[in-house]
């Protein structure tokens, strides 16, 4: 049960959210391989992409390993958004996603991301320029509004649809909430009433039960999983399988999980280089350890010990061997 985005139909209705510093090409490739309906790049600044800034070019990688290949663009000037679309398409983008949801101060301070929800006329000009420059479908990600005094997501979504946007994703918080409190899935229903194009609900989804509630309360066509995928790139596919059997992937066994985590570590080192990759991998390894503790497969004390051993080491071979030892220990304890 997929979702149609222009001529493209996704394989299911559970997507991986774009997350800066998380959904790089290695993470997206694994999420895609393990059943996510769609994966979206980290936010790519349009002007910096056009000017070939190395970190933005790296964020926009993935055409060879991912299909549909989605690049999310951010910006505040129609000209640079249009030029960014052309570069992204040259890099293989099959879908362009516009970021109007990022709450980070360094983004909103530059009048990008969710700051655009404070000026819908300007936001519409950006959407228009992006759609006109694109020969592929354009989607839009937003929040409920800047704050609770300006819950204007329905109006922005209506304007986006009128400009030719093919799908809208709404995070059920305002910008001023950042990630505090709980996402308001019911508030997304007002966006559903405003548009007929596909709608994706985002915010706090971490299980198939959550996904069912998100869909029921929001009226959305699908869900997007963000922080719930920390430490487990396979998780959107698992949620999809729980939501619509046969559309995603089964939860991996401990042995399979060990192999995926090891593969992820190796992919990070290849993508980012030995030195920088060591540091990039630490947060993912830390999340993997946290997930094991959450399932009571290791104790809190053991989790702390493993973090100390694996997150402070600059020796990638030692980290690789430590990860294998960690999962071997967990499997032995589970079998006892």
**Helix-and-strand structural type:** alpha/beta
- Range of strand content: 5-15%
Order of helices and strands: EEEHEHHEHEHHEHEHEHEHHHHH
Proper CATH architecture of the largest domain: Alpha-Beta Barrel
| Major pleated sheet | 8 strands, parallel, barrel
What is the tally of beta strands?
A: 10
Tally of individual domains: 2
CA(first)-CA(last) distance? 40 Å
Rg from Cα: 20 Å
CATH superfamily of the largest domain: Aldolase class I
Describe this structure in words.
The protein is an alpha/beta fold. 47% of the residues lie in helices and 13% in strands. The protein has 2 domains: 4-243, Aldolase class I (TIM Barrel); 254-335. The chain is built from 14 helices and 10 strands. The strands form 2 sheets. An 8-stranded parallel barrel has the order 3-4-5-6-7-8-9-10, surrounded by 6 helices. β7 (138-143), α7 (153-163) and β8 form a beta-alpha-beta unit. α12 (274-294) runs antiparallel to α13 (300-310). The mean pLDDT is 96.
What structural keywords apply?
single chain; 336 residues; alpha/beta; TIM Barrel; 2 domains; eight-stranded parallel barrel; 14 helices
Task: Describe the structure concisely.
By secondary structure, this protein is of the alpha/beta class. 47% of the residues lie in helices and 13% in strands.
